[in-house]
Design a protein that fits this description.
The chain is α/β, with parallel strands linked by helices. It has 2 domains: 115 residues, Rossmann fold (3-Layer(aba) Sandwich); 225 residues, 2-Layer Sandwich (Dihydrodipicolinate Reductase, domain 2), CATH 3.30.360. The chain is built from 15 helices and 17 strands. β11 and β12 form a beta hairpin.
Length: 398
Amino acid sequence: MKKETTIGLFGFGVVGEGLYQLLLSNQITKTHIKHICIRDPHKPRSLDGQVFCFNPDTILNDEKVNLVIELTNDDQGAYNIVKNALRKGKSVVSGNKKVVAHHLEEFMEIQEQTGSALLYDASACGSIPVIRNLEEYYDNDLLKSISGILNGSSNFILSRMFNHDESYASSLSKAQELGYAESDPTSDVDGLDALYKLVIIATHGFGTYVHPGNVFSFGISAISGFDIDYARNKDCRIKLIAHAVKLQPDRFTLFVMPRLVNPEEYVFNVEDEFNGVVIEGECYDKQFMFGKGAGGFPTAASVLSDITARSYDYRYEYKKKNYFRHLNYTTDCEVEIYLRYREASDFNLFDFETISERYSSLSNHYVVGTIMLDKLISVQEDIGEKEVFIAFTGNIDG
């Protein structure tokens, strides 16, 4: 039975205001926002000032507020809001993928202790309901892999480079101009945003939480026209892809890398700010979900869905974690990569198992070969400071 929902909202930026407008236009009964907590009392707002507050305790200590919506851009503040609200027995909806990815184990424990619920479909893939589908439709042990474009900003940049022959700098500037990338785009273009989403998705898909610091991630900020030309010559495109792959009945791995994608793959034609997720299973081969992954209203729509679900007492059961055999996370597997580099010393960082393709010129060199994923992790910080670019070919052996 649908219950009355009294909301305390933290944050009134693009997503927060978008959510407020959606609640008004959809006229959802038995749901209303009582407080909106903001940091800047002097910033012009489009609402009556009486609804705003500036102290988090106004919401956290209000016994009538039974659902907290956390949509701030302050990671430490968001962590404190989610933790304290759950401890007080209030349910929470959050869109902060970084906070959820880093503290999901702790949040799961608090939910078990207090009976509160944390929903965060908005933290992964904007308008695509990936998490709830993994919890409900794919609540079995048949999953083989989850992969896809999880970051709309980086995908927009790559689309501009491939489809309009723009440089990386120009494509990034356009993404920022349209609001698809932040003024500091590091999280998007270096693969961190996709990494956080992958950790969350994998927890629901395979039932094992992996800390983001234990996962290899490499972004697109070092991509060049040479890499674009290489992909075109192979009749491929480069997409930033997050991978969760079951290697054995009891082992799986995670990583985020640019990938050489061929025309037969679903994500080949996912362009601009859109996301695309491919779920592969033992019996149903591959299934594809597609939708907008960047922008205020797509994310707000996902938050709205969580609000509605919670009004019917929906909660994540973490079925794979609680009811199925435990899968062990491993980086002991071999991946095939394209590596473009300039200096021999940069190449020497990579301990390849095999090399199947090699090219050298005055300004650019590349190899295609296999390397152990754990060796990539061991040099992750070093290669982030080098003039190199890596792309996964799609071949993995575990």
